[in-house]
Amino acid sequence: MKLCRFGEAGAERPGLMASDGSLRDLGAIIGDLDAAAYDQPVLDRLRALDVATLPEVKGPVRFGPPIHRPGHFIAIGLNYADHAAESGMPVPAEPVVFSKAPSCISGPNDPVIIPAGSTKLDWEVELAFVIGRRAWQVSEAEALSHVAGYLICNDISERAWQIEGTGQWIKGKSAPTFGPLGPFVVTADEIPDPQALDLTLDLNGVRTQTGSTRTMIFPVATLVSFLSQLMVLEPGDVVTTGTPPGVGMGKKPPLYLKPGDVMELGISGLGTQRQVVVAGG
């Protein structure tokens, strides 16, 4: 299944992308695609629906984030060796874990807002996943059975806030619009191997990032198992897994986002995103 939310910001409805490419309205079946909706029994109920009986949504729509306010938005840093190198940091011996505020989440094609005081705004195309079964101290062998599905994340980063001063990555990762997600969550049964996905990001029509999840230092199964040794992962929690090389901070000289810039990013099988950068107040 490809699960999505569509409509104006704050008034999105749950939807499902049918195999023929049509958008179907799930509003009569489920109230919203919130964290509880990604619990495995709920997904099983949605999977059993006769899609042809669901109302078809006609015309262009805005896609919102495909999950409404996850309980936890966890991120992994430096998960590609070549990105660690361009960042001037050593390859980590274990996953680098930080959080993004759930309030930073936005739709896949919504504007990215440069907040007041920002001077080094950067981009990061990433594979993210949603938890579908409670995970506490699970093994790598069973880890993927706890994943509900996969989606695209643009891990927008304000590098000065992230790295300078006292550091603390969450500071540079959490402003409004710093977490575009979607356009949909593709359920795990449609992604047999999350380590075989290609990632790209273009800035103003120029390819800046090209990568593959094959080159992750810590694959998805390792991340689920590792995180679950430290905390309970609940259905609906979102984990974004790190970015391949090609970010603005790593360029010589560094290149940062400015008003009017356009980011276009995609992951094989998971759709595409497009964001215009705008100045904030």
UniProtKB/TrEMBL annotation:
- Alphabetically list the UniProt keywords: Hydrolase, Metal-binding
Q: Does the keyword Hydrolase apply?
A: yes
- InterPro entries, per database record: FAH, Fumarylacetoacetase-like_C, Fumarylacetoacetase_C_sf
Domain Fumarylacetoacetase-like C-terminal, residue spans: 73-278
What GO MF terms are annotated? hydrolase activity
Where does the record place a coiled coil? none
State the family it belongs to: Belongs to the FAH family.
Please give the name of this protein.
FAA hydrolase family protein
Protein source organism: Pannonibacter tanglangensis
